[in-house]
Amino acid sequence: MNTATEGLLAALLAEEDPAAVRAVAARLDGALAAMPRTARAAMAAAARAVDVCARARHGRPLARLTPQERERTVTALASRPGTAHLMDLVKVPVLLAAGTEYHARRATPAARPVAPADPPLDCTPSAQWPDRQGADAVVVGSGAGGAIAARTLARAGLRVLVLEEGRHHPTAEFARRTPLDRFGALYRDGGASVMLGAPGVLLPTGRAVGGTTIVNSGTCYRTPDRVLARWRDSFGLPLADAPRFARQLDEVERTLTVARQPADVLGANGRLTLLGAERLGWRADTLRRNAPGCRGSCECVVGCPTGAKQSVQLSVLPDACAHGARLVTSARVDRLLVERDRPGGPRVAGVAARRPDGTAFEILAPLVVVAAGALQSPLLLRRSGLGGHPMTGRNLAVHPATSVAGRFAEPVAGTPSVLQSAGVEELHDRGILLEATAPPPGLSSFVLPGAGRALRSGLEGAGHLATLGAMIADRPGGGVTGRERAVSWYRLDPRDGRRLLDAVRAMGELLLAAGAEEVFTGVPGAPSVRSTRELDAALETVTPRQLHLSAFHPTGTVALGADARRAPADPLGRLRGVRGVLIADGSALPSCPEVNPQVTIMALALAVSEAACGAEGG
Amino acid sequence: MTKRRTRFTETMTGTVTLTGEREARPVRLDLEVRTDTVLLPWRTTRAQARGRLRVDGWEGATPVAGEMEISPLARRRIRYRLTFRRDGRTYLLDGWKSPSPRHPLTSMTVLPFTVHDEERREAGRGTVRFSLSGALLPFLASFRFPAEDPGPAQLAPRWNGRPGRTEVWYTTLTDPSTGTGVWLHHEITAPEDGSRAYAHGWVAVCPPGGPVDHARFGPEPVTPDAAGFRATDALAGPGRLRGSCGPYTWDLTEHQEGATLHTFPAWAWRRPLLPAAQIVPGGRARYTGTVRGPGTDLTLSDAPGATGRIYGHGNARRWTWLHADLGGGDVLEVVAAVARRPGLDRLPPLVFLRLRRAGRDWPRRGTRTALGWGGLGRFRAEVGLPSWTVTGRAGPRRIRVTVDQPEERTLALEYTDPDGSRAVCRNSVTADARIVLERWWGGWRPEAAWTLRGTAHAEVGER
């Protein structure tokens, strides 16, 4: 870490202890190491740019300024409209590193409960896998869709191999490592995947055995009936018929042991949300989750350290392995092998994959299930020469999301709590779903306002913040380009922008109703408000682009549909133009599912894989 | 146009690590590959492969057999699926090359493979490589594109009405239970003078120790038949031999067991450039049925023998012939002849010898034994009675064939050529033969030897 970055950290955090700055810098360095080169370069460039400002203003580099001079430099940059947004981007990784460091210094390491042994998986690292192997079916990706497809095919008696680009992380490993460490290991690009567009937003996805289910919050909504009706009627998916699809949803919920989160470990964040909703008379309840026996570790998004959350590597894949499926980890699939000279048209023959050391291996199988996720599946098809359909990689739907924090007089953090605990469905009919989402201890996901001393005091008072997140059911407006690296882009629909502002207002109103002294809106001009009147005033001139946006749940890039011109895959999940390729992940969803999509993806994958092996209804 | 097949051999060496072992063992894979079509690199071709797998520490060579999928361009894959047995268990060696334009040499020469047992558990994995320096030339030189084997369809008559031709269907067999030899001869002769062609033949039966008895049928006008030979009282067609002649009757079914054995070069049968040519459809055959006559009441069940075909201008000036069923699917066919054409009649006997061992015919080149390399190294025959020999060397192997035709087990018959000249044929279907095959390993070492007592079928013809 160079002196410019250390100077920036000292200035942003108003930290005068050089040892503390170096410690935060080391944490930041570790987090950046997992990110792509462009993210590291951008961070270094931002630090140099601030350094140049310091030289221009005071004639000396940032590291050699007095604390007061540093404070003036960064507060000036953070308050100017042109540079404030850039400073907010820099603050995201800095707050993660600083939060971890300060939390580690403050908190005495609590005696962690002994992590339970995971159910056995037949996992082989690709380095130990032979160069040539045959199978009845290959599943690319071990996330929500891939796991359930693998289990279905294995139960039908097929020899199934599941290829996973990430590696296997047992629960004991989560219990051992800090959340920030795990953050870099479990997310693709260290969590720094960005969607280009107006505005550019973070779109984190998991990369490990279990896919994104290992890092999601465990919220398990059933697919709303109105979404299923749209898929059946507008997209021609008979399998989305609600009574018929209910069987798959029931099966998935049974597998994941989905139940409503008990109130005992809900945490203050969830209780305050429910209190605010109650006072407003809004529909709200604790969320249905796949975490029986949740102990409130509040670390869902970096892997559950107690094994309570039934991610697919704990619930589905062990069952698949018990039926003979095998997992190959650290295996990136280069391309699907396609035999184009087959009578009757091209047919898939297997996959070619690569180990981390660059050596290649191949698996031949007459059935390949593509379940690499909505951002990777279109790339895999393109690399295989199967991405010719004009809608492959298009139709990207996400849940644009923003968050609002409220400062309460009483401490909010510090007791066992569920990361995503309560849902407010009052506005769901308008496409807005509010969910109480607390950050993991020491990892502030909310971008605190200000810089220097203001930011530092905000950081130190983070324990009094209750955080609400809102996600919007969007109109698909994005896509994924590229062959090797996913370059995703997204255009926020004006309707969805309005919904985001409505969501910010609703969250602020709810927090104030729950008794928040102050609400942080994330809006540059009015970072904090104390009443609904101030909130309305602050939001009057704000555009959606000025909000701190992130996005979750990418879907729809290889959509199923009856119309061959609009959908790359047919209503049974079979990729058009080639035989033997099944789409069974988030990319198969025809449009935004409007709720957290794990259960929907798994049920759809279950339906298409059952249809593929003729086991439907069996 | 004649449909052609492809045949080639391939040798690869490398290592294999058996499951449970830490050290890799050297391994060598020798394959002979056959396809039913011409191998075209832009197409996908299925092929049959058989050969030997040698693994360091395993005793001897393990026979392997299986199939290949050869598709270097269309599917970018050359797959080998070979099974072998070891310690009473069957294993599958499954691997493929993945030709890539980025690494053409490596991808075309490296074969990674995995070995599975009967329960599909991995029993080993390894890689063998095709050596460009050591294996390329033999590989390229091994390519053959033989015509498709028509099998019993070759029993159809070749004669098209031209004068001066003779065509023969002959069958010799041995009853394994009694040791009796049977010879059925069916012939069409079209005299050179343009007179009417005629069909005739005979049956000869030789109990062990002799004497030989025989009866003739015909001559009679030729009865056209699309599938084989037909006369009033005799029939020789695909899968069936039936007839009566004097006191003898026979009714046999024939099952040909392999590919056609081309004693003469294969082209000599397709294009009648030589004075005459002979083939043995199936190489060897099994006969089931009855042969009855004075003192003979044979009920045959899978009796070994063969049906041969001759078509040409007539008999040679001098000739010898041997058909020896060596057991286990192996067979030796020898014809040594001196032609009657002016000039050729001054040459020593031209030897046409074909030994089929383990499904491979030796020597590979059809003219090798007769012509050698420009006359050098040709095989030699010493023709005489009651004993005659053929010797020769091709590649690292040499062979010595000694045939004994004791007079009491030999039948002398007179042949008439299309030009009216006559020859005497001395035939024995209960002859003795001794065949010794040696291989050069720094010195001649015996490789195989066969002794046939009364089961060889042989003939010497003279004028």
TrEMBL record, chain A:
It comes from the Bacteria. Residues 373-387 form the Glucose-methanol-choline oxidoreductase N-terminal domain. The keyword Manganese does not apply. The keyword Flavoprotein applies. Pfam families: GMC_oxred_C, GMC_oxred_N, NAD_binding_8. InterPro entries: FAD/NAD-bd_sf, GMC_OxRdtase_N, GMC_OxRtase_C. Signal peptide: none annotated. Keywords: FAD, Flavoprotein, Oxidoreductase. PANTHER family: LONG-CHAIN-ALCOHOL OXIDASE. Belongs to the GMC oxidoreductase family. This is GMC-type oxidoreductase. It comes from Streptomyces kronopolitis.
UniProtKB/TrEMBL annotation, chain B:
This is Uncharacterized protein. It comes from Streptomyces kronopolitis. The lineage of its organism: Bacteria, Bacillati, Actinomycetota, Actinomycetes, Kitasatosporales.
